[in-house]
Design a protein that fits this description.
The protein has 2 helices and 3 strands, in the order αβββα. By secondary structure, the protein is of the alpha+beta class. A hairpin with a 6-residue loop joins β2 and β3. The chain starts with a helix and ends with a helix.
């Protein structure tokens, strides 16, 4: 996984969601399972103390993810 791309995406996630430093952001690339969609998706899981973890996936490989891709994934439930 591209660590620069992951760090950039984590920064965007923290800014867009107003996360504290105690929140954990995990970013992984996975094979897409829907043949109509991207063959590689980026999954972002946010875990904050005392809250249920929340995941969204973005229909792009990690190096191709733009800030608005994450914003759109949040707006549409990320699934």
């Amino acid at each position: 996984m591209n660590s620069d791309s992951a760090a950039r995406l984590e920064d965007w996630v923290r800014q867009e969601m107003g996360l504290t430093t105690s929140a954990q952001v995990d970013i992984v690339e996975r094979a897409g399972t829907d043949p109509r969609c991207s063959p590689v998706v980026t999954e972002v899981t946010i875990s904050a103390p005392g809250e249920t973890p929340y995941s969204v996936h973005i229909e792009h490989p990690l190096p191709d993810v733009e800030r608005m891709d994450f914003v759109a994934a949040l707006a549409f439930g990320g699934h």
